Amino acid sequence: MHLRIAVLPGDGVGPEVTQQAVRVLREVASIHGHSFHFEEHIVGGAAIREKGSPLPPETLDACLAADAVLLGAIGSPEFDHLPASEKPEAGLLQLRNALGGFANLRPVKCWSPLASASPLRSEFIEGTDILFVRELLGGLYFGEPRGITSTNGTSVAFNTMRYSVAEIERVARVAFAAARNRQGKLTSVDKANVLETSQLWRQTVTRLAADYPDVQVDHLYVDAAAMHIIMNPKRFDVILTENLFGDILSDEAAVISGSLGMLASATVGGAVDLYEPVHGSAPDIAGRNIANPLGAIASAAMLLRQTMKLEDEASDIEMAIENVLEIGYRTRDIVTSSSDRVVSTTEMGQFVSESLAAVADMRHAYHAV
Ligand code: IPM
Ligand code: MG
Fold first, then answer.
1. Which residue's C-alpha comes closest to atom 5 of ligand 1?
2. How do residues 60-89 score in pLDDT, each as one tens digit?
3. Which of 83, 198, 301, 359 has the most CB atoms at less than 10 Å from its CB?
């Protein structure tokens, strides 16, 4: 299979983790005889420095012409003083909008070897497997009007939370379909006791539920959901929520998987699918070869599964990740005991790559019996 992947390393630890994800994809291609073509482009702070814009037209055009986009991370304190519309993050939001993916899938699971890496008690989190479906193109992130005005020497800032029925429906259908293929449970998270957007959200999800009689639906207010995710994460299967709530709850849920560095994401539904780890650019550890590349590598697995329908290859990557964790290899963020073998970003990528061939052999042997 031939695949063109636009690679946007971005800022901070982005280039380091992306490099390892690409290395793993190259290994998959060589084991399975696929041809993956990688094209690197600048975005975010790196693009502001070079081109004066966080999303240069060449980058966007290349992404629109690709089969999928693999992004590292975006953001740099160097640009903190800029207005929101000129920051590196604005490049990411423009890119998401232009690619058109409205459903951001963020799986959060407790990897058994990492259960003790979490500050939460293992018996509460072991077995957790949640899929967040975060609406990605609406709500406060994109609602108009927005801005800061100044009258009589006082500044007033405002943002708009806005959702149409169509915007809610399309992302909700992605979540229902996902739930159908998993445990058949969907929890919709909103703030319907206060917000009109949430009332419309709840009504719409409730109406759609009639089309999915095999999916069991419940609704939670976002404040309660934040608590239940920590108190009893195993009660969840698919969590559907709007843009900002999904941003916040997915970082919170990362605690279950031991580190934000473990989480992957896929953005689907638009012209070109976008894959990115959930973590940010982590400028404090950038350039030191210590960042955890597993979120980026797991995002590459999602790319193979969602865009390319290469299920075996995707699950091989996930199995390889599990293997290296079982052996005890850990980047610093997931170290739990003195017997762990602390490895660098590049070593972690290398170990996952090396483990792939063995995993693929095992799968073949298993299918053969
Ligand atoms: C995320 C990030 C982004 C977001 C930032 C970098 C704009 O936090 O993907 O969760 O808020 O969506
Ligand atoms: Mg976030």
1. 89
2. 999 999 999 999 999 999 999 999 999 999
3. 301
d(CA 236, CA 123): 16
CB atoms within 10 A of CB 253: 25
Q: What is the pLDDT of residues 112-159, one digit of tens each?
A: 999 998 999 999 999 999 999 999 999 999 999 999 999 899 999 999
Residue located nearest, by CA, to atom 11 of ligand 1: 247
CA of 56 to the centre of ligand 2 (A): 23
Whether pLDDT at 367 is above 90: no
Q: What is the mean pLDDT of the chain?
A: 96
Rounded distance between C-alpha atoms, residue 190 and residue 104, angstroms: 17
Q: Whose CA is nearest to atom 10 of ligand 1?
A: 247
Q: Contact at 8 Å (CB) between 86 and 34?
A: no
By C-alpha distance, which of 281, 232, 244 is closest to 139?
A: 244
pLDDT at site 361: 85
- What are the residue numbers of the active site? 141, 191, 223, 247, 251
pLDDT in tens, 182-194: 999 999 999 999 9
What ligand 1 atom has the least distance to the C-alpha of 247? 10
User: From the alpha carbon of 93, which atom of ligand 1 is closest?
Assistant: 7
130 alpha carbon – ligand 2 mean position (Å): 17
pLDDT for 368 beyond 90: no
Please name which ligand lies nearest the alpha carbon of 141.
1
What's the rounded Cα separation, in Å, for the pair 288 and 117? 22
CA–CA distance, 297 with 26 (Å, rounded to integer)? 12
Give the contacts of 304 (CB within 8 A, at least 6 positions apart). 25, 28, 310, 313, 314, 317
Count the alpha carbons within 13 Å of 171 in the hemisphere toward its beta carbon: 31
Pocket of ligand 1 (CB under 6 A): 74-75, 89, 92, 247, 278, 280
Q: How many CB atoms lie within 10 A of CB 144?
A: 8
For the residues of 101-168, what is the DSSP string, one character each? --EEEEEEE--GGGGGGSSS-HHHHTT-EEEEEEE-SSGGGT-SS-EEEEETTEEEEE------HHHH
Give the pLDDT confidence of 189-218 residue by residue, as tens digits.
999 999 999 999 999 999 999 999 999 999
